[in-house]
Amino acid sequence: MPNLGPTELLIILALPVIIVTLIIAKVVTSARRAPRRQSGPRPQLDTSQLHRQATALVTAGKAIAAIKLVREQTGLDLTNAKRYVDDLRAGRTPQPPPSHHGAPAAHPPTPLSPPGYYGTDLATRVRLLKTTGRSGQAVLLVRGETGMSEPDAQRFVDAIQA
């Protein structure tokens, strides 16, 4: 190699490094854009099973997981799935999600709220929830409407006679 100066040598050595860097960047960006594959398809739940699982997640304090479950099972957008889960958290009867593939639900969920639930004061609603054996929902209702901490809401619910 006749008469290669330091500038030419630097260019010759830097060129492969630049090419490798571009190839790695291309692989990384294409991997990020690829859709994520789940471990397997999640079985479709009927409306009552979905309602029970979402309620269990909400009771366990996993609202985000409940929203994700509702979205995956019903195809609802984020806003409506969140509204459904928020209704569960507050002890209200959520709007039923659309049934799968347009078919009517075989077993509709039992209503969350007893007759006469809406339009009553907080203590009456808590009492109604306690009489149906749903003290956990009563605590969530009190917390949602008053902003109380969980221990304070639990004491409030315990103080109300069923």
List the main descriptive attributes of the protein structure presented here.
7 helices, elongated, 0% strand, mainly alpha, single chain, 162 residues
Short précis:
The chain is mainly α. Helices cover 60% and strands 0% of the residues. It is built from seven helices and no strands.
**Mind telling me the C-alpha Rg?**
28 Å
> What's the end-to-end separation, in Å?
96 Å
Shape label: elongated
Give the helix level as a range of percent: 55-70%
Question: Averaged pLDDT, please?
Answer: 80
Structural class: mainly alpha
The major pleated sheet works out as:
none
How many alpha or pi helices?
A: 7
The succession of helices and strands, N to C, reads HHHHHHH
Written overview of the protein:
- With 162 residues, the chain is mainly alpha-helical.
- It is 60% helix and 0% strand.
- It has seven helices and no strands.
- The longest helix is centred in the N-terminal third of the chain and has 28 residues, at 6-33.
Secondary-structure blueprint:
Blueprint: H1 6-33, H2 47-59, H3 63-74, H4 78-90, H5 122-131, H6 135-146, H7 150-159
Helix pairs in contact: 2-3, 3-4, 5-6, 6-7
